[in-house]
Structure prediction request, 221 residues.
Amino acid sequence: MLYAQNLNKFFNNGGEKIQVLRNVSLEIEEGEFLSIVGRSGSGKTTLLNVLSTLVHPDEGKLYYHKNDLASASAEHLNTLRQKDFAIIFQFHHLLPYLTVMQNTLLPFMSSFAPVPRDIVARAEHCLDRIGLADKKDRLPGKLSGGEQQRVAIARAMVKSARVLFADEPTGSLDQKTGEEIIHLLEELHKDGLTVVMVTHEPLYAKRAERILEMANGEIVS
Prediction:
């Protein structure tokens, strides 16, 4: 489904060129749950950002269903992120002045046309599944950290995304709430969603089907 070949990425740090990915190659199967682990600075978040097309590799190839993303147009990548890819982060990136429902529907909101009824119904179903149907009219500031993260996941669910990229999705949560989020990701994975998760928590990493460990910009196991 997603195949990377010899990915290299460099960043400029005060005039010094730093290599953060070193000839990384990997293959992710459709429907897989993959965890990427490693110490801070190992390159795991950069790898996730490259795989999700948020960051362009300096060298190497990236294929999604045999389509070369490394040379794809910006328009094609934007469409891919809108339809097939969903990304959640450690911090939820919810708009504070929009309600839970509006944040969930954000990928479909436009100033030119109302959100179609079937999409609204799907959003209601997603919020019900994550236990927030009764809070759909609340603002994010009235939610707990775990509830805000659930809204971010619901936003991914309503898109019917095929791949969910999660960057430290439990990093700002307590253990109990983090466990709830991991359980939700497991349930979505059972429904067929491909999940690629960066985490520093060994217990959460072990819940995935496969673990990749990174060090110094390379996959070491």
